[in-house]
Specification:
It is a single chain. The chain is of the alpha/beta class and 307 residues long. The chain is 33% helix and 21% strand. It is elongated, with a radius of gyration of 23 Å. InterPro entries: LRR_dom_sf (IPR032675), TIR_dom (IPR000157), Toll_tir_struct_dom_sf (IPR035897). Its main location: membrane.
Length: 307
Amino acid sequence: MLKLQTVGGLLTDVPPQTTRVKVKCFNLRVPVKLTFDNLSHIRELTFERLNVSANESNFFHGIGNITHLVLRDLSWKRLEMGYFEGLTNLRSLTIEHLDNLEFLHPDVLAPLVSLQSLSFRYIRSTNAVLRYRWKCAYLWSRATLRRTASDIKLEQVVYERDVFICYNSTDSGWVCHDLLDKLDKYKITAVIHHRDFLPGSILEETINESIAKCRYTMLVLSPDFLASNWCLLEMHLARNRIISEGRDVIVPIILREFPISMLTRTLEGILSKSHLQWTTDPDGQALFWDKLTTKLKHGGNLRPLKM
């Protein structure tokens, strides 16, 4: 990676064979569109301590071929709608240390039609931008999920139900009201033990049969879930199905945080692939339901956002 340290200069002297550039201490005092002229060969770009004298739209004009962008320690106070215009090939965007940012337009990511990875890191909890981060992620994810759903075809296996839900009775309020109401709205069929298990049946056999007849197994994770031997049994049975069928059938949801000491090797392996986490933020909840229902209806990966 080529590293440039410059003050008030133009990025026009980058060797044409260079594809990765890192710029530190960059003060822009010239028209922005001249700054990136003739740099279409750059693929990966990192800015550190970037200081822009004015809010400019179409900021990245001239480098529309980049696929990975990192913006770190920015002085920007506002991220307006047109900043990322033209970055149609961008697949990964990381924004770090937004200590001065006061406004983030909820549609600022709309032009990034190829974006696959979005990460906001090290944002001060008192910063006003926190109001916008879930909105921004939600709108971007909706567009991504629509594209994903149109491209995915589920295997032609016929199942009786869509999902078997594993949860601890302590979390039954959320499962029976929030979760089931949402699944019913999207016509996603579910099996839950308190409603669908017949009294007097052998519990281990019933769990195994329920997991086998559903397309997916959902784990509603919480400290009480991980403290329950029955819940852990359901988790291990679902994991065995991954091994036997050779496909990812587990949909893990972190409903309530649990201490790291409760993280087993099996669960760590499950969570390392993909998972969703419940939040109290309204826009975060909308994003959660979008991703969950798309997964259960159309398949694909949960594609978690690092927020």
